[in-house]
Batch of 3 targets.
Target 1
Amino acid sequence: MKKEEFISSGLLELYVLGSISNEELSLVNDMLAQYPELNAEVMRIESDLIRLAESQSPKPSAKVKSSLLDAIDVIEDSQEKLEEKKAKVIEIQTSEKGKTSMTMLLMVAASLALLIVSAFFNYIQYQEIQLAKQTIASLNQEKEVLANDLSTYKTSIESAENKIAVLRDTANVTIPMKGLDISPNSLALIHWNKYTNETFIDIASLPEAPTDMQYQLWAIVDGVPVDLGVFDVLKSAATLQKMKTVGNPQAFAVTLEKSGGSPTPTMENMYVLGAV
Amino acid sequence: MNKDTNQYHDESHLIALLKKKDKAGISALYDNYSHALFAIIHQVVDNQEIAEDVLQECFVKIWTKIDSYDSSKGRLYTWMLNIARNLAIDVTRSKAYKKGQKVQSIDKDVHGSAGSVDSINVDTIGLSAVVSELKPDYQLIINLIYFKGYTQKEVSEELEIPLGTVKTRVKTALEKLRTVLSN
């Protein structure tokens, strides 16, 4: 674009007025760089615009300038103070930082030490608790064993008491049944009540019965064997086992029979026999 | 060139002083431009006292924001003009201002659309004898662009004239004014 053409375009006026697009602005900047003498034209336009504006109103009162300069003093003062304060804060922060890091280090070290000690005691405590738990468990077990024993003893005491009661009862007759050839060392006693006809067997010694067999007690009444029931050989020696009642027995005998008993005794399996 | 023009000339020196936070800079700047900027502000707020407050605020802002001025984007005066006009417009939007100006501004609000043909006379009210030497069309264009901060495009749309016409009218108006001002 030629210089004269450019001047007459009105772009320079709009440039000073600030009412210009970005493309126009770069064109103006290019032209101003290319033709430095255009700057004089810009000055002239600016000067015109300033005079035009000035013609529109009276001057502002003189106090505005002094008030402005005061305001700027205040701004600069507070700015300075602000910067001083910032500097102080930074100074304090840096000096505190040194202290802080040492203090922090000590604190961290102390915390770590405390943590380790605490962990150690926790471990010890844990061990102790585990031990205590184990002790309690074994004590509980022992207690159960003892309770079982106790109930066993109770039972055996009860049966012993029963036995004593039976033995003391003068109405009872005790008939020993001695071992036969098949088991000469065996021995069992019958306590028979002559009034109530109650019959108790008291096993002193009988071999353990095979698993599928049981001992069976018989009474001989008028030469005929009468079934008084099957029994097991109990561990507790003190136990009396109550059998079926029988009246007027002449003898008692025990045979080994199939489990549950037989209607008639197997004579060759007779272990003990005793006459009343 | 007269002495005054030389002062406007010396822009880079002023800017250097301002950037150094030298109070001599703001003092000289005030002497050179305060009247013109005050006139722009006064055109907008239409109140002497408020305009003076805004003027002080404007120079404080120039002082604190001088580092954001970029000479490749335009003249220092243009930059200051925008600050002055924007601060003035902000003030007119404040509640306190609206309350105080209620009675006075009714006329202007009624004719709020600045570009309509009916409002030409209203919009040029307050412009001095210098401007009134111009034809109404030219008065209007100077008022909208210079005192109200309209862009060319906004003027073009508002007045329904081509962009090229806006440019030439601005040019012609300023040339006319130059003659008037020289007399």
Target 2
Amino acid sequence: MVRLTRLSYNFGSVWALKDVTFNLGKGEFLFLTGPSGAGKTTLLKLLYAALPMSRGAAEVCGFDLARLHGRHVSLLRRQIGVVFQDFKILPKKTAFDNVALALEVRGMAKSLIERRVRAVLRVLKIEDKSYVPCERLSGGEQQRVAIARSVVVNPSLILADEPTGNLDPGLSRRLMDVFKQFHAYGTTIVMATHNMDMLAMVPSARIIHLEGGRITLDSSEQQPPEGVHR
Amino acid sequence: MIGIALRLALRGVRDLAEHPWPHTFACIAVTLAAFLAGLFLLFLTNLDRELHARHGQVQFQVYWQPAAELAGVQNAWQELRSWPGVESVRTYTPDEALHELTASLDPEAELGWLKGKSPLPATALVSLAVPDNDPDRPKIVYERLKALPDVAEVHYNPAQMDMARSWLAASQRFLWPLIGLLGLVAGLIVGNTIKLSQVSRLDEVDILRLVGARQWYIELPMLAGGAAQGLAGSILGLGLLKLFQLGVANLLNVPPLFLSIEFLPWIYALGLAASLTLVGLLSSWVAVR
């Protein structure tokens, strides 16, 4: 699903990510951990081609990121669902419209869009808020709309950047359950977090710890050190 | 495909309502720019029209003595029309002159009691075409007019022809560069305003990119929105200009000027609206890139 070899990215003379190498198989759940500025968000942005890689090799969902351009970027992104800490939803549009957007850009038929969006909103328990403008929803509801938008397209890979960062612990746990549910259906998930409590909620997940743009721990190769525990 | 494109374009226009304030202010700015550009064009085109109309022409105002017999005066008017070079003769009997004067001063004024006792003289406005190879003809005609029976006064401006020629030369040299400069200034103002208003929609662009929308899918609604702003602003601006023109159309249409201010030729108005629409489209394209 993801194959990275010495992937690097620099802002001028600063290396935000250096020689990152790992493979991620289909259906894996990966936590990217590390302090702020460790390179977690940069890595996620590289994975969905929001940033161009500076060096190395990367393959995501069968797309070679080094050769990715033009319409192939949109084709890659159709395979990926992305969830952000700040939701990135359109506040004036309703929950339904926000989720439907991901299907509309694929040119899907209206009746099919209606059916799929309703189903996802039901799973995420916000069906009753379908026609409420998102600016009137709570933070947790807005985040569920963002998750609904990312999963409605049945993605191969979900990238989540601190998805529970703005939510209280109770709501965070409920949203983690949603991610676990989609993971159970076989979706590959990469979640960046610096909230260590999240890790304990998915005991089977792999952990990659970043510091200063480098991998300092990969739980598939070694045991997590103290401080990085489940 | 055409259906999707139309739907996206309509959505782009409809979505302007989601950020009403930036787009309203942008529309006001475009309206004002269109109005000012149109006003300048109105001035230039009217000036150009007048200069062309008067090019090679001299107008004489001929006043008969108040006591002159109207039948004799009307015979003179008939004769005038057959003079070589005379292009038009506008005539006013004393009553007609009074009516004209009343209408220009106070249309409500009731001066019916003066009918047949008008204190104004019979008047003729004679337009003479002056051929380039006969520059002295105005003087000869002037002398002939003065020599007509019962003529009290003949007015004409000897500098009129020279001035017309100089204005024509100047307008040909400066008119198009001025219009070009005006277009550039209006384009910059409108372009930047629409570009700034479209920035409020960039979050939408980010999200569309994120969910895998193709570039044309993202751009089309934005371009339609920008073009709609340009078009709406220019139509409103031209509407304001029409109201202004109606208000001042006959302000200078009084003796001795007889200048009526006309609206822009339709091709200019269309050109102005099309240019501002195009500027709106291009600036949206720059904003979304």
Target 3
Amino acid sequence: MTYPLRKPGQATLSDHRAAHRPFASHKVDFAAAAVLERSPGIPKLSVRDVSLSYATNSGPRLTALKNINLQVQPGEFLCVVGPSGCGKSTLLHLIAGLHQQTSGEVLVDNAPVQGPGTDRILIFQELGLFPWLTVAQNVEFGMRMKGVSKSDRQARVRDYLRLVHLQQFSDSYTHQLSGGMRQRVALARALATEPDVLLMDEPFAALDAQTRDMLHDELERIWAETGRTIIFVTHNVREAVRLGDRIVLLTFRPGQVKREYEVDLQRPRHLEDVRVAGKAREILDDLREEINKSLEEEYGLEANA
Amino acid sequence: MKRTLRYILFYSALIGVWALLAKLHVWPPYIFPTPWGVAETLWAGFADHSFWIAIGVSMKRMLIGYGISVVLGLILGLGVASNKFLEDTVGGLLVSLQSLPSICWLPIAVLWFGLTEKAILFVVIMGSLLSVTISMETGRKQLPKIYSMAGRNLGARGLRLFLHVTLPASLPYIVTGLKQGWAFAWRSLISGEMIFVSLGLGQLLMMGRDLNDMSQVVAVMILIIALGYLVDGLIFKTIESRLQQRWGLATA
């Protein structure tokens, strides 16, 4: 069960010069990606009436997520935004199967999710790269657990490190790399297990603006080239508009779907584009209401304490 | 360079004061030994091989006793950390037992095993097992959750998750526990060796007392300090700092 890159022999990937100009622009067929994501059929992933509540040390149960309903089409790039504390990270953990929801179900290809699986790989906010392994061994890890043969593993590690322009760092340890490079290792490690769905939890939040811009370009290119379905959580609305086909806005505690937005701007988009800013503005107005609610609650809590 | 100079100055001054006090004959030499007397005893002890033999005998006991307590401590510590019930029950017992000085195991050891090799080993094991177990347990608990989550996320579970993620992730903590265990084992061993003609360093120390030979007492004490420092400072510190560098915990 392998999913070859959409264009396995593509010149830009094997082109050795790419190593020396890692962020050179690639010709990417965004139209093809668009066709795929719009194709009708069963959704790649559905979240049905998912709620999550848990007991707290002080007082009543806390409802983190309430009746979340989502459908994600194959190859779609979905962004989830919301104020901090809306449970957007928790939602990704539920989809990844790392936590169990209180009620409702998560379906992948119409089959309910039971525990973690390499068809859904989560890139954690704090990455969770293994410091005792080299970059190449990190990328190889998921395949080793899956029992992929050694020669296949080596070939795929090469492919995916080339995809994120890190082939010359394969023997480095992760703490020797910069934040942006580590981010790309995590991306390569996730992609190397060839998941259907890539879950990304505020992956670029801790990076400087230039690095983030580059990674936006790279992620968009990789998404178009590999045809993965991506669910991308962020608190940055403009980033969501820059990347997403569709944006879901969650409310502050309990997290519920407040609104959905289609982003039908042509790709590749630029973060500073007026149309991107305009769309972001529209969403931001709705988001601000939720941010205010979260602030009120936090100040309220402080007053009681 | 500057640090080495400081060390040399400090220790020369220390020995200088010692020599001065000895020269002034404030106390008789059987109470306050002279530096040259101690140096002579050290030289003679190594020359007639009696110190070498004592070191060899003590080190052999350390390797056996410490080895057993490391294996048992690893199993116990990881076992206790993996289960909430065991943590509450056995874990609590271990912590309370640790307040017992290891020499307190000696009466039991002598009653069970007599004045034998086994009695000394028992004291060494009991002295270090608890500390290895407890540091293993805390190491396991301090382990950032992100690693096992990432491991599960990438398809590792059960034994493979343990071998490929939990164990390597906890190695820096494990080494810290092993280091502490070694220090405890070393202390217990010397105490245990004092009880009978055991040929080790502890017995050599007691022999100094029996012969009223203060120079020998101090010479053996210096030997014990030097050996303890050598193993702890050179072997364990090196392993520890290498691991921390490789794991990215310390800036190289």
